[in-house]
Amino acid sequence: MAKFEVARRSLVFGVAGVLAAPALPRAQAPAVKLGILQPVTGALSQDGEHGRLGAELAINEINAGGGIRALGGARIEMVFGDARSNPEGGVSEVEKMQAEGVVAIVGGFASPICLAASQAASRYDLPYVVDVGVSDQIVSRGLANTFRFGPGFGVVTSAALDNLVALNDAAGKPSRTVVIVHEDGLFGSGMARLLNAELPKRGFEVLETIAHPTPARDMNNVALRIRSLRPDLVIPSSYYAEFVLLARTMQQQRIRPKGIYCVLNGAASNYRFVREFPDAANLVMDCNHWPDPRKPKTAELRQQVEAQNRFWLYNTPMNYSAVMLVADALERAGRADRAAVIQALAATDGAFTKHIMPYGPTRFVNGQNQAGAPVNTQVQNNDIKVIFPRDFADAQPVYPVTG
């Protein structure tokens, strides 16, 4: 009996001791690895750096807010890859990210990089979210792993032409002739073909289409050709350095058409261009990606960027929004599984609101967000103003340009 009592007391005290002991800390959920692919060396390094910045801001915000709640508060860990401004670099980094075990990849920026990198990712059923790449080939190959949140150049060109017609009609149709200037790669050449097909249908005569390489070191011959043709409008589709060079050369040669109307231009909606070359940038118009100025988060994010002495470029809000899209898919998938993330991305609907682009309800068809849409901007008084769509424009267009 005594032995039984001692045993019973030991059991009671043992249980009490366990109950009184402090709770063990809860195990931290394993981090979710997310690949961020950007060209941070080479000709496209400026765009790549600002794309990386947008991804970093989103990841920091998600982690500070408790991580992915459906995964027990798992933090997102960035696995960064430098695409080196070429498709081969992008593919090489996808292979490294595959080995690292990332759950998805965001980025690429340039169309050739996005095209090659998303194809490489498809071999591993690895979800790939395009940040900017506008070539419609990216989402027309039937790749189930590839998603583009922003618009492609088919949608952008259609909007650009509609707005150009509205702009020209409202001013009394002062412009009739056009010269197209474009970079000679996948993005610029595709854009030029669309413009050549569509401009004549809308009453414009294309006098000439001028291609240039990326990078380009001199634009004097292009500017001299524009001078000799005397078009009413110049429509450039180029990356940052090439358009800045063209705009400055036209300014130096006193070439002033009735409008410089850019489509998906790397500089025209870029505060670096506006700040460094205000005279060349003045009154340049663009139809491009741009965040929604009506959303409070837009101003907050811009403030964070400028507090770092960085320029506000569209790459930052595009990548911020793309990472938020992946986080939303992870929450809905409930597990860090590639197949589940692809399924969740494909099923994204209007409930996804943690982005700052001027889009309607998100809905993917064959990997393309049907709500993705551009805006028209114009450089006015050393600032970038929205001139279309009218429902949230913060300035009236200045057109035609005189003098």
List keywords for this structure.
single chain, 403 residues, alpha/beta, Rossmann fold, 2 domains, seven-stranded mixed sheet, five-stranded parallel sheet, 13 helices, 14 strands, globular
What can you tell me about this protein's structure?
Residues 32-375 form the Leucine-binding protein domain. With 403 residues, this protein is of the alpha/beta class. The protein has helices spanning 2-20, 45-64, 87-100, 111-122, 153-170, 186-198, 220-229, 240-252, 271-276, 278-281, 296-307, 315-333, 338-346, and strands spanning 32-38, 76-82, 104-107, 128-130, 146-148, 177-183, 205-212, 233-237, 259-263, 285-288, 364-365, 368-369, 375-380, 383-388. Strands 7-6-8-9-10-13-14 form a seven-stranded mixed beta sheet, with helices on both faces. A five-stranded parallel beta sheet has the order 2-1-3-4-5, sandwiched between helices. A two-stranded antiparallel sheet has the order 11-12. The longest helix is centred in the N-terminal third of the chain and has 20 residues, at 45-64. It starts with a helix and ends in a 15-residue tail after the last strand. Residues 1-21 have low confidence and may be disordered.
